Amino acid sequence: MTDLDPFTDALDYPMYVVTAEAAGERAGCLVGFGSQCSMRPARFLVWLSKLNRTYRVAARADRLAVHLLRRDQDDLAQLFGGETGDRTDKFAHIPWHPGPGGAPVLDEAPAWFVGRVENRVDGGDHVGFLLAPEEVRRPADKGFRFLSLSDGLGIRPGHPVD
Ligand SMILES: Cc1cc2nc3c(=O)[nH]c(=O)nc-3n(C[C@H](O)[C@H](O)[C@H](O)COP(=O)(O)O)c2cc1C
User: Fold this and answer.
1) Å from CA of 29 to ligand 1 middle
2) CB–CB of 31/112 below 8 Å?
3) pLDDT by residue (tens digit) across 7-33?
4) What is the pLDDT of residues 100-109, one digit of tens each?
5) DSSP class of 28
6) Which of the 8 DSSP states describes residue 35?
7) Is 44 near ligand 1, meaning CB less than 6 Å away?
8) Does ligand 1 come within 6 angstroms of the Cβ of 19?
9) Dist. CA 140 → ligand 1 center (Å)
10) Among residues 59, 149, 83, which one has the least CA distance to residue 93?
């Protein structure tokens, strides 16, 4: 099996917090695998590990919320990337509200969108969720520095990776 690390080690891509709600259950995790994948229509694909609680909730959700964080929001990055909802209620101590269709929106995120799940793609150990944006909030301050992979490298994933 050929390893991609020599290629991906050179990258510093944005990090997102992806949240979901289904039948009253909420979940969310830090996600590095994600990108816009179509302009017309606008579409965005996020990849969730089959092992994460967020995946299990997202598999039953109609919509997902995708948030950008500022670089200094390492507390939120640590909560969503370093803890698992199997053990911690990540939404208990942070401000959030239900967005369109119930997807939890983090009040402190400077930019976010809620997308309807249009398709799911099995990519191996992650499943891709193809999102059609329904509501998009742009940062008031467009100059903010968003959290990227190099900022999140110190976080040990809260859910075991294998
Ligand atoms: C730098 C970094 C990148 C990550 N990228 C992803 C990702 O793309 N997809 C994913 O499902 N989990 C990713 N994770 C792992 C989850 O954020 C982490 O395991 C989280 O604790 C899962 O929480 P949950 O079990 O409540 O869903 C990443 C973690 C870190 C630290």
Assistant:
1) 5
2) no
3) 999 999 999 999 999 999 999 999 999
4) 999 999 999 9
5) E
6) E
7) no
8) no
9) 27
10) 83
